[in-house]
Amino acid sequence: MLKEEKRFVEIDSKYVPRVKVKDRVWKIDAEGMYYKDLNSLLRDMCNKGAEKILIRNVCGQRYIGTDLNAEVEIDIHGTPGNDMGAFMSGPLITVHGNAQDGCGNTMNDGKIVVHGQAGDLTGHSMRGGQIFVRDDVGYRVGIHMKEYKRKIPDIVIGGAAGDFLAEYMAGGVVVVLGLTLGECERCKARFVGTGMHGGVIYERGDILEVGKGTKLMKVGKRDMQVIERLVKEYCERFSADYEIIMNAKFHKIVPVSKRPYSKLYSN
Amino acid sequence: MRNLSMLTNPYNDDKDFDGCSIFGMMNVEGKRFSSRDPIKAIANMHERGNGLGGGIAVYGIYPQFENYYAFHIMYLSRDAKEKTDRTLATSFNIIYDEEMQTRPAKVIDPPMVWRYFVQPRKRRLGKMTADDYVTEKVMQINTETGKAFVFSSGKNMGVFKGVGYPEDVADFFCLEDYWGYLWTVHGRFPTNTPGWWGGAHPFNILDWTVVHNGELSSYGINRRFLEMHGYKCTMQTDTEVLAYAVDLLMRRQKLPIEIVTKVLAAPLWSEIDNMEPKQQQAYRAIRQTYGSLLMNGPFSIIVAHHGEMIGLTDRIKLRPLVAGTKGDFLYMSSEESAIRLVSPTLDKFWALRGGEPVVGKLRNPHKTTSLEEN
Amino acid sequence: MKTNLLPEFLVERDERRCIRCKVCVNQCTYETHSYDEEDDVICSKDENCVNCQRCVTFCPTHAITIRKNPNVNTENANWTVAAIRDLKKQAETGGVLLTGMGCDKPNLTYWDRLLLNASQVTNPSIDPLREPMEIRTYLGAKPDELEMEMENGSILLKTKLAPQLRLNTPILFSAMSYGAISLNVHEALARAATKCGTYFNTGEGGLDKRLYKYGDHAIVQVASGRFGVHPDYLNAGAAVEIKIGQGAKPGIGGHLPGEKVTPDVARTRMIPTGTDALSPAPQHDIYSIEDLRQLIYALKEATNYTKSISVKIAAVHNSAAIASGMVRAGADIIALDGVRGSTGAAPKIIRDNVGIPIELVIAQVDQRLRAEGIRNKASIIAAGGIRSSGDVIKAIALGADAVYIGTAALVAVGCTVCQRCYTGKCPWGIATNDPWIAKRVNSDIATERLVNLLRGWSLEIKDMMGGMGINAIESLRGNRLALRGVGLTDTELKILGVKMAGA
């Protein structure tokens, strides 16, 4: 007996009327609800076998989707708080609105679909699953993404990205479509892919200024298969025109070396 | 002369360390509105603070006294008040004074808070400008007794702050009775000055206020540079240094905000080297001259004075700040949800880029009215 | 480029004793020794020798002696042999100088200038072998007060306590990642912790699936690289530790070089085999104190509030203020790692120049948390150069709840502190992932050695406590009257909160 009694957050009885089940869809009105209560409710629903959950009036509640190791669909209306889907493994979260900082932080599996913008650090240290963002993303998106064998995470950015995109990237796929940019306009992002030593960034057109230690390459057949698969899903999710998006030249950015700092030290 | 260091920095740390939430809201037509929205917004970012500091700055609240400096002073003892009253009486014509309206609220150990409307005594002013005179007197009061602290000193504006969550501080000061056209609000997470009311933000001098999130790694040299220019950094906070830097550059050296932001969050050398020669020269000069005012390390700030609200983050954006507009309103916030709570739909919403300011200006700087009057 | 570097050590072989058994040839992973069949003689390349003592220990006839090279520059207090060596090395390579283990400079240790008390006459000392002597420790947040009622003669506890870690002895194994050390050593630490009723720390490299069975005695670490961090891992441990910094290299990240990322390490870290495993300097989701709170609560949410969350920082100038913020941000345990803390690889210049001694920081943090009335809200684990049970007990008297040991544990396994961990060729099979070398550590034997060490230290701690007339460790915790200082300035005594010996 080394661990003491387990502690769980108990659901406040006042929130029970906020939950309704209709046609196997669980609905929550989250207005003014504290994040611990909301997440506790979500855990409870997943334990009861919920497959689809709809949350309305979300405004800043953090960590939605964390610790739900289930294949549940969560629809969020409003603005979810920071670290949405942090350490997440399994759920499909759809945000009808913008996502704040840290969405998909250290995400393990599942999917996040944002009908709008996403903040800084989207997909930080992500190791599996997918993130689709319709519009722009903030700074430091996809930094230190990883992959292992067939567990390869994807981030698809419909708009533009901020500085330090895919810094330290060790694996996975980042696609930047730049659909919110004007003609001939490029992303303002600086230091893209610095320290990158694995994975790949695909850009639609010539929109990214690549950082140190990366190189720009032509896309091959295999690359196109990945791009087509991801763009297809992007278009399905956001009702975008596949032909228009694909009618552009894609480039890929890859690291120069798997060992960027092997010559930094003298032994 | 005693100073406030026992209060501002009881453990003699290098400085104050804290983290925060910030929110700003401005009506660019100068229409005044109540505390409801700004307070609701900051309360939504409760998790970013720890209940040991909250504060509000609001502009346009004293239209009936708009020509007088409005002092908000906190007193830790009756003696300090008597002594400060004497100082005030000899330096200023006191037009009106009263104990500020407060009510019991979830705040910790409130001091006595007093409000004065004052005008510098002409004979004492000499060659000094009224602003410089007031600045000097504020510094004098703040260091004189160690138990009196001027936390607001501008005209037709006021700062309200204390130890508690910002919504509780607003409750304490009965802020529902105040109407202003520009509000900045702050929720604080201090680590080493937990019980000091003066340590809360906004930080104020004259009508300048700063709310700040982050920690300046360059504080040591920023402070010494400002001290060389006659500022007394009694609070030992990053925010104080930011406020004085803005005061020095904008009020005293008359630089426009666009350039001031290039001092505080200077472009990288790699960017400067790629500019056209004339710009290179200018930016190089900025970094050479004002290198000691580069605010290095994470910060996001909202600086305000009459007619203007400025948002800025450090040059590699280590702290969040987003902005949105809806009609005549400009919003800035650490988190988007706080804006959406008070304005679910926005005309425009964006995240600030590192080192690039957002500036909200009154369309007509001389006209402010209350929303309820229309 | 011809090197100007002279060998640091000279290998001397007594030819009369050498039986040409070639043990030295086989044991040296730096290829120092070689056998010349033609002449039937064993030769040594002195420049390869790192003085790890492996060949010396294993030579059956004690034929080998390793000597410091006497050919050194003219004695100079500023331009020491080591300083000149480093300069030459950098002139030849243009790189950052790496090193391993903790700072080897003198003058940074306060333990030796602190002395313990003992009972004489006015209160009795206790004989710990025959009388009760309690060193069990619980780590985790404690409430301000308890709500309780009497019900039919028994106590009804109404307050729910935060999760607590039970330690049978106030010593834990410090964070050492799989990748930096071999799996056998990781396993030995896990098994020894389980046997002794304490905890090992996974370090930042994840936990191999084969060791999940020891999860109840694991503190799983979440560091800037987020290697091997997933829900199973977080829930496998007894507590989760957020690593902000390390005493040996405050403020910087790390690289596990690609050659150490073997298929097994790759699987545990979930990165491709052979790539550099980069740990960024900061945790990129923590740029401010409120961000720390955000991550602490993300981890609490991810483990449904069943685990203590520890936050580890390097001991630096403003540790007291930072620690106060950490506690207010929701940390249940704060781990402080002093300047003498060890590492598998760090730039030498950082290891030897950044950070401050752990003794001062324990004293300052404990005092600050008490001044602010929040000492109960988190436990303190001290780390960084704990060499003996004497250091443990002094750390506890200064205000720590428990200590982490790293180097001491590795020495128990076989380490000789030669400071070459970063080469990945550790001849003792500890800091290596080369399967041929790693099997030199037998995890059964290593476990036994670690258990012996903790047993010995625990007995000594009890002896010292008994001598002071204290039979429960909580009576010693933060009890600075048990300490006196010698050879310290007034300022040092003030910071440590102890009196001068004799006073």
Automatic annotation (TrEMBL), chain A:
Gene3D superfamilies in the record: Glutamate synthase, alpha subunit, C-terminal domain
Occurrences of domain Glutamate synthase alpha subunit C-terminal (ranges): 54-203
Coiled coil: none
Pfam families with a match to the protein in the record: GXGXG
Gene Ontology molecular function: oxidoreductase activity
InterPro entries according to UniProt: Archaeal_gltB, Glu_synth_asu_C, Glu_synth_asu_C_sf, Glu_synth_lsu_3
PANTHER family attached to this UniProt entry: TUNGSTEN FORMYLMETHANOFURAN DEHYDROGENASE, SUBUNIT C (FWDC) (PTHR39673), TUNGSTEN-CONTAINING FORMYLMETHANOFURAN DEHYDROGENASE 2 SUBUNIT C (PTHR39673:SF5)
Protein name per UniProt: Glutamate synthase alpha subunit C-terminal domain-containing protein
Organism: miscellaneous Crenarchaeota group-1 archaeon SG8-32-3
Species classification: Archaea, Candidatus Bathyarchaeota, MCG-1
TrEMBL record, chain B:
Residues annotated as domain Glutamine amidotransferase type-2: 20-363
Superkingdom, taxonomy of origin: Archaea
Residue numbers annotated as active site: 20
Gene3D superfamilies: Glutamine Phosphoribosylpyrophosphate, subunit 1, domain 1
Protein name per Swiss-Prot or TrEMBL: Glutamine amidotransferase type-2 domain-containing protein
TrEMBL record, chain C:
GO biological process: glutamate biosynthetic process
Keyword Flavoprotein: yes
Binding site for [4Fe-4S] cluster 1: 18, 21, 24, 59
Cofactors: FMN
Keyword Plastid appears in the UniProt entry: no
Pfam family, one: Glu_synthase
CDD domains: GltS_FMN
Catalytic activity: 2 L-glutamate + NADP(+) = L-glutamine + 2-oxoglutarate + NADPH + H(+)
Keywords: 4Fe-4S, Amino-acid biosynthesis, Flavoprotein, FMN, Glutamate biosynthesis, Iron, Iron-sulfur, Metal-binding, NADP, Oxidoreductase
GO MF annotation, one: metal ion binding
Residues at which [4Fe-4S] cluster 2 binds: 28, 49, 52, 55
Start and end residues of each 4Fe-4S ferredoxin-type domain: 9-38, 39-69
EC number: 1.4.1.13
Endpoints of the signal sequence: none
Family membership noted in the UniProt record: Belongs to the glutamate synthase family.
PANTHER family: ARCHAEAL-TYPE GLUTAMATE SYNTHASE [NADPH] (PTHR43819:SF1)
Protein name as catalogued: Archaeal glutamate synthase [NADPH]
Organism the protein comes from: miscellaneous Crenarchaeota group-1 archaeon SG8-32-3
